[in-house]
Amino acid sequence: MTYLRAVIPALAGALLLTALLWWAGASTAAVRLPGGADTLGAGTAAELERWLAPWAYDPPDFLRPGSQTPGDTAYKVGGSRYLALHATALQIRFCAVFALFLPGALLLLRRLPPTHGRTPATLLALWGWGTVAGTLAVGVSAPWLIASGGRGSYRFLPQLAAVLASGRQVLVVAALVAAAVTVLVARVAAKGAGIPPRTPVPAGPARRAATVGTAAVALSLLVLSYDGIAAAIQSAPSPGGFLDEPGDLLRQWLLLGGWTAPVAGPLGEWVLYRAVDVLVLVLVWWALRLLPGLLTRVTVPAMAAGAVSATVLALLAGQSLRGALDGAGQGPGPLSALGNLGHGVPAALTWGVVAGIAATVTLGTARRKERGTS
Question: What DSSP string describes 217-235?
């Protein structure tokens, strides 16, 4: 698919993803109504409001006019300026969602068009990329949102890590809907374009490339996320000043796995949790094994984008299973089992890019060796 044909579905998907997130944020006021709590239940309504709040234009209670927050004299002096900062943060957030989803969707539609058996792969790739784009948009707008709280210079990096982890559950659902619509529009746009080529990839080099790429993901999932190593990363000292407390932010950007594990439970429970980690790696390996053969041309950007999407989706699958293991409905509401959904997307972006580059280099090296021996 040419870029000219891909631009219309990519624009449609970017606009829809932005609109869905805006609509989700606008729905926060409806959840806060007494009738919403009565219909959904107090626990479910509170959980849903927490998920929607990062996309809502409505400011938090302490920024509202007439709020009486003890000790926050800065709000009483310049409350309108803090409200303006909050509105600016949300404007940047929604613009960033559109601006970040569009180029990734263009690249994926160009190299992975939804025709001739590629439609499921394209849908999954766009779903993963939409989740990444929304997470990055939250990070881009985070400085303005932190500054609107009146304490932008206090523990900035831990605040940035906390903001970066917000709004992910709604984003996962919105990204899936946007990806589906993008694929439908792309299939219409691809009519009459001819059969896109496939890259011939021998099985041996493809398996080696997938193994090398998966090893990069395993470094985060099985090594860096181990409790002792993760604790050392989070408590790592720094030279001081602006980077005085980087641990929380490092955890967001480096660790795919969870901090807590059933260390005191029965052996069977520990095996189930480790089986989830193995499943994540198996899904990543399987996706990296198939990806070169699905692309119209194997390039570093296309492999990196595909590997990022594969890592994100494998992570979501593992988190869904882990939520089921933890037991649905045992928290404040039925949504509590999905509370961890979308955690670790920044780390999936980091290690997915590394995995894609490593797989591409390995594949290219194997091909050159085969040509040299032939």
Answer: HHIIIIIITSHHHHHHHHT
Q: CA nearest 129: which of 164, 178, 187?
A: 178
Residues 6 or more apart whose CB falls under 8 angstroms from that of 357 comprise 300, 303, 304
Instruction: Give dist(CA 79, CA 76) in Å, integer.
Output: 6
> Which pTM does this prediction carry?
0.90
pLDDT tens for the chain, 374 residues: list them. 788 888 999 999 999 999 999 999 988 877 777 776 666 666 777 778 888 889 988 876 656 655 544 445 444 444 567 788 888 999 999 999 999 999 999 999 999 999 888 999 999 999 999 999 999 999 999 999 888 877 766 778 888 888 888 889 999 999 999 999 999 999 998 887 667 777 788 888 899 999 999 999 999 998 888 888 888 887 766 655 555 577 888 888 989 887 555 555 666 777 888 888 999 999 999 999 999 999 999 999 999 999 999 999 999 999 888 887 776 445 545 566 677 788 889 999 999 999 999 999 999 888 777 766 65
User: Is 159 exposed, middle or buried, given 0-12, 13-18 or 19+ CB atoms closer than 10 A?
Assistant: buried
According to DSSP, residue 62 is labeled G
Torsion on CA atoms 237, 240, 241, 243, rounded to nearest 10: -20
Buried b (16+ CB within 10 A) or exposed e, 81-115: ebbebbeebbebbbebbbbbbbebbbbbbbbbbbb
